[in-house]
Amino acid sequence: MSHQIKFIMVGGFLGAGKTTTLSRLAKYYSGQGLKVGVVTNDQAADLVDTNALRSQGLNVGEVAGACFCCHFDALMETIEELGSNARPDVILAEPVGSCTDLVATVIQPIKRLFNAEFSIQPYTVLMKPSHGRKILKNDKGSGFSPKAAYILKKQLEEADLILVNRIDELSVEDIDELIQLIGEHFPGTPVLKTSALTGEGFDALTAFLEQEGDFGSKILDIDYDIYAEGEAELGWLNSSVRVSSETSFSLDQLLMDVISQLQTSFKAKGVETAHLKTIGLWEGFFGVANLVSNESQPTLSLSSDCTVNEVDLIVNARVACDPEALAEQFKSVLENCAKARNANLEFRQTQSFRPGRPVPTHRYAAPQ
């Protein structure tokens, strides 16, 4: 039997920074001379994360249409496809940011059904500061209902490691408060602090992930009715659009305008952003912009530094509102951004919906 594949799943709420974390981990393991495969996951196709990671030269597969737990067989088939040319040494898996109960429905099934093939590394869950602090403090101004907040808490509860991300955006006092809140709610769970953007704290993370032990064993006591209702409160939009103009325009400025104007629209409607991201792709150039809450600033997380006449935009929005209203706001903003550039829009595909009730392929009520 050949070597076991290290299976590293990185969870966390929408906008916690999972994709940036996986990108940095992929580069770290590749730098160690290891073959790395990445599996992204979403409730629909046209995922910004998949395109962003592939644009960085990574070997990426995507499980679309449902979470890993509900498409477990597709997850394993995708991992097999990633190894069609050469067996990977490491699989990095990024589940949907609104999903939880992943130990019982993903890690435990891998342990029981594919134990000889995989080595389960610590299950890491990223703490999203902007919403996590409010939810753990039971702040009524968190922007989400108690049912949606329930998901974030359950995600952290099943973690082998809680990673406080975005520390480059936080004061020392903010970081200390978050660590104290985590200690009060999840006593005994190890906590590390990092910035996926700058790499601060990553040495401690990679050292933790190298540990051997019985990881992925925290089976949740979870109410699937609350879980399903909390997830269904989020409007989901994935769209791909071609923007073309006879006049050249800045790709990065277009990305920021789309994000900023959508934020303004969401604030005006009084609906909370869970995560909003867009990627622009054209002839080898790409840029990415995102927003992680109504109170945050839009960020150009990957700059293209290019001027174009034509670009393919992919937009993913996760917002606490009706999906039809979300689609209307999105279309209005895109039309406004196009008009400012004398550009034409070609809507390739747009999906807007509420996630359905999770129905796991497998669920083990006790650890192996």
Q: Which features would summarize this protein structure in a list?
A:
368 residues, alpha/beta, 8-stranded parallel β-sheet, 11 helices
Give an overview in words.
By secondary structure, the chain is α/β, with parallel strands linked by helices. 36% of the residues lie in helices and 27% in strands. The chain has helices at 18-31, 48-55, 72-82, 102-113, 129-136, 146-157, 172-185, 202-209, 224-232, 251-269, 323-339; strands at residues 5-12, 36-42, 60-64, 90-93, 118-120, 124-127, 161-164, 191-193, 235-250, 273-282, 285-291, 299-302, 307-319, 343-353. The strands form two sheets. Strands 1, 2, 3, 4, 5, 6, 7 and 8 form an eight-stranded parallel β-sheet that branches. A hairpin with a 7-residue loop joins β11 (285-291) and β12. It is globular, with a radius of gyration of 20 Å. The protein starts with a strand and ends in a 15-residue tail after the last strand. The model has no long low-confidence stretch (mean pLDDT 94).
List the helices and strands and how they pair.
Elements: E1 5-12, H1 18-31, E2 36-42, H2 48-55, E3 60-64, H3 72-82, E4 90-93, H4 102-113, E5 118-120, E6 124-127, H5 129-136, H6 146-157, E7 161-164, H7 172-185, E8 191-193, H8 202-209, H9 224-232, E9 235-250, H10 251-269, E10 273-282, E11 285-291, E12 299-302, E13 307-319, H11 323-339, E14 343-353
Parallel strand pairs: 1-4, 1-5, 1-6, 2-3, 2-4, 6-7, 7-8
Antiparallel strand pairs: 9-13, 9-14, 10-11, 10-13, 11-12
